[in-house]
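User: Here's a structure from my thesis project, written as structure tokens. My advisor, Dr. K., wants to see whether a designed sequence matches the one we expressed. Can you design one independently, without my sequence as a hint?
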């Protein structure tokens, strides 16, 4: 397995020379960054969607530069092949920079440039580090900068990951809707302020969960459309310095072809480099979805509480034992997981907002944190919704006897009878019922109402 410990190579930069494992695909920039930021023990190679999207961007750039006559066909070919390997998930162990890093993503970007260059060199029959044949900056990074590449890749990664989230939410909504149909005939007590309220059906409660999730899923498309405007070709601050005049149009056209996404050049490249507003909106969307999921999870935990001392109106599936000390105890572990995912996403949303606000002047140096938070949250919310459906919602059972028993209370009677008898009469019946009198006898004898007990 690479890197081969039996030989080494020397690379030199403006700070001096360093020794690297001979077959390491990363280079001296990556080595320095890995030594500077041993922070979280989570490397950028674990942010697979971002690495894949960055490689797509590099492949598109190489093709555009070749078409414009700025890169030889051979170099464009090997860069493209190296990118394809990265896109396919190869060479992950060579992306060694920590996700928490200074430099606005430069370390991640150079890690990718060096991996592509060195893998391209191998494909050309050269040794890693022989950059006179294929250079990570002059060739792989031609007409690009970290500002536009990292930003573009993050937006592509979020757009590519959003359909899976939408599918997971709609699948979960379908699971709740199916239960809503199954539970349509089960009357139960509605509750407000954690106090008894008016009657409803268990089906109505579950259908409301489904509707909320579908509304959230429906918002995803509009939020992702904000991500389609790219600053690619704007280079460092959006002015296009060091890029060919037609590069932006050429590379975005190529990216459209590679990704099948409706990508476009941002209307104002300087603003696109300066602002992270669309990332904040995307983060807010994730937080909103997680809030919906968490509220549903909390309701299910409460409705299933018991089995003897709680509401006990539904039974959640038993997926694992609940206690090493209490035999037979089963806990609502899936809803609890969903709650915790939501708490994490809320914290990540705060981080994204702080990072977006704190990026001074022409670029935001805190985009690596935003990438980590957004992509992690996106993956977690999608997984939580999918697991919620398959491991919990699809197997929920109603406990109809508890639902019926909980309906027998004075407040419910007042609410149910008031439209028919008026508030004063309904209140009098409720008072008598609370004192122990039989409701059927009350209605028949004192108020001369022919009431069937079931009604």
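Assistant: Designed independently from the structure alone:
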């Amino acid at each position: 397995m690479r890197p081969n410990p039996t030989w080494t190579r020397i690379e030199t930069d403006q700070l001096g020379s360093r020794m690297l494992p001979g077959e390491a695909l990363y280079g001296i920039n990556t080595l320095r960054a890995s030594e500077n930021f041993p922070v979280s023990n989570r490397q950028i190679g674990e942010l697979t969607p971002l690495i894949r999207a960055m490689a797509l961007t590099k492949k598109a750039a190489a093709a555009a530069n070749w078409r414009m006559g700025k890169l030889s066909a051979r170099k464009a070919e090997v860069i493209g092949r190296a990118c394809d390997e990265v896109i396919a998930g190869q060479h992950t162990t060579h992306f060694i920079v920590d996700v928490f890093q200074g430099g606005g993503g430069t370390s991640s970007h150079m890690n990718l440039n060096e991996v592509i260059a060195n893998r391209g060199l191998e494909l050309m029959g050269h040794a890693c580090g022989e950059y006179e044949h294929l250079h990570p900056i002059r060739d792989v990074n031609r007409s690009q900068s970290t500002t536009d590449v990292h930003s573009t890749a993050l937006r592509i990664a979020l757009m590519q990951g959003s359909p899976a989230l939408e599918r997971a939410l709609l699948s979960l909504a379908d699971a709740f809707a199916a239960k809503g149909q199954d539970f349509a005939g089960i009357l139960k007590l509605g509750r407000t302020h954690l106090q008894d309220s008016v009657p409803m059906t268990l089906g109505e409660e579950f259908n409301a969960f489904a509707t909320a999730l579908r509304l959230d899923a429906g918002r995803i498309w509009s939020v992702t459309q904000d991500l389609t405007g790219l600053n690619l070709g704007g280079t460092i601050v959006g002015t296009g310095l060091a890029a060919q005049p037609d590069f932006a149009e050429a590379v975005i056209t190529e990216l459209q072809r590679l990704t099948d996404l409706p990508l476009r050049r941002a209307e104002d490249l300087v603003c696109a480099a300066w602002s992270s507003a669309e990332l904040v909106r995307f983060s807010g969307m994730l937080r909103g979805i997680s809030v919906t999921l968490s509220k549903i999870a909390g309701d299910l935990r409460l409705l299933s509480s018991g089995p003897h001392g709680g509401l006990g109106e539904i039974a959640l599936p038993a997926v694992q034992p609940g206690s090493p000390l209490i035999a037979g105890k089963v806990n609502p572990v899936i809803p609890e997981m969903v709650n915790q995912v939501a708490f994490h996403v809320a914290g990540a949303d705060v981080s994204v907002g702080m990072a977006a606000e704190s990026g001074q002047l022409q670029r935001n140096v805190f985009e690596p944190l935003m990438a980590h938070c957004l992509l992690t949250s996106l993956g977690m919310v999608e997984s939580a919704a999918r697991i919620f459906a398959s491991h919990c919602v699809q197997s929920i059972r109603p406990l109809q006897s508890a639902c019926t028993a909980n309906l027998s209370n004075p407040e419910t009677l007042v609410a149910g009878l008031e439209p028919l008898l008026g508030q004063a009469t309904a209140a009098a019946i409720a008072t008598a019922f609370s004192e122990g009198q039989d409701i059927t006898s009350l209605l028949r004898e004192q108020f001369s109402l022919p009431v069937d007990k079931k009604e």
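When you compare it with your expressed construct, this may help: The chain is about 55% helix and 5% strand.
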